[in-house]
Amino acid sequence: MPEDERVIVVGGGAAGMIAAGTAASRGLDVLLIEKNKVLGRKLLLTGKGRCNITNSVEGINDFVANTPVNGKFLYSAFHAFSNHDLVKFFNKLGLKTKVERGGRVFPVSDKAADVVAALEKFLKQNKVQKIKGEVEKITVQEAIGGNVFLKDGRVFPGRDIIVATGGLSYPRTGSTGDGYRFARENGHTVTPLRPALIPLETEDRWPAELQGLALKNVAIFLYDGSNKLLYSDFGEMLFTHFGVSGPIILAASSYLNDIKVSSCSLAIDLKPALSEKQLDERIQRDFKKNANKYFANSLSDLLPSKLIPVIVKLSRISAEKPVNQVSRVERKGLVNLLKTLTLKIKGFRPIEEAIITSGGVAVAEINPKTMESKITKGLFFAGEVIDVNAYTGGFNLQIAFSTGHLAGMNCRARKV
């Protein structure tokens, strides 16, 4: 078969691998080009190395609702390859899955490497040719085909070209924004690029004293400058040298894309299972139990040891005050502090630290039923390079798999 009749997929991540395998499963000649030595490098890092592949929500509307940026564009992709289709796909390849809190779907093994191995098996089964190389330029001419130029001088002609190069996040995995340049060079608009699902820096410096401390089962409340509630969540968070991170913080960051971040504040409820009255009663019991101790030594049953010095300082109650001398007003202030531990948000961490990139190739210029460019026939886009993004919980990876599958199903190269 002539080389100019093949499909070329640029990018060996989630979207690229499933696009390549899907196109090849239709009998097409497929070449997959990846700049890294290994495929799926970003996949290996997702979900803390466990890889949250999708979410178990039932309907397509639920996925669209969890995709705040251009979710409606994805109806066809989700319909063509749903979360249920994805789970069956992996199960057929020998990867067993499980559902955890919030509908998050993980491999039973808890190993992202097993997800990558299953995708590589899919490529091998369908005889996808793979090469390592860094793409310099892509040119596509309607009815003629295109060429992929590598930085080392090699040129690969192809009938259809699928760009699945990821975004700007995690550049060490190869996602360095090349796909946006390829899109612009072929006549496409790229919407403003911003971080999404990203840790937050705080004006307050005390989180640095808690660096590495993870809190489970806490509630957070994100407010704008006028004290309007933007977002609330429950789960796990992490203190860092710059501020806060962790699953519920990353999810909260998605609500700050169109808002002046530096005007926002974050309130943490350290004891969401208790009302203020119940927490006050709990503290009184602890004080009674530790009646002969100093205040700083009376909180060990209530808080992690690393958090106690910070809470003592913020409470403005003397650390060496006998606990039986703590006044009712001071105790009420402590209750309020534990229920609304507030931080002033300074801004986002650098986009390189974001899990995903918000912005990308304008969806108005892509056919949602095929993932093919409306501007340049024969050029397709899949995954994070497109201007879509979702909340945490497996939704973004499902977007990658669904758009990759749809692109792979609609290539028009001749069959082998």
Describe it.
This protein has 416 residues and is an alpha+beta fold. The protein has two domains: 3-194 and 354-410, FAD/NAD(P)-binding domain (3-Layer(bba) Sandwich), CATH 3.50.50; 199-348, no CATH class. Helix content is 28%, strand content 22%. A hairpin with a 5-residue loop joins strand 13 (214-223) and strand 14 (229-239). Helix 1 (14-25) runs parallel beside helix 6 and helix 9 (276-289) packs across helix 11 (328-339).
For this entry, give a set of tags.
416 residues; alpha+beta; FAD/NAD(P)-binding domain; 6-stranded antiparallel beta barrel; 5-stranded parallel sheet; 19 strands
The largest sheet has its strands arranged as 12-15-14-13-16-17
Number of individual domains: 2
Global Rg: 25 Å
Count of helical stretches: 12
Largest sheet: 6 strands, antiparallel, barrel
- CATH topology group of the largest domain: FAD/NAD(P)-binding domain
Q: Write the CATH homologous superfamily of the largest domain.
A: FAD/NAD(P)-binding domain
| CATH architect. name of the largest domain | 3-Layer(bba) Sandwich
Residues in β-strands, percent: 15-25%
Gross morphology is elongated
Mean model confidence by pLDDT: 93
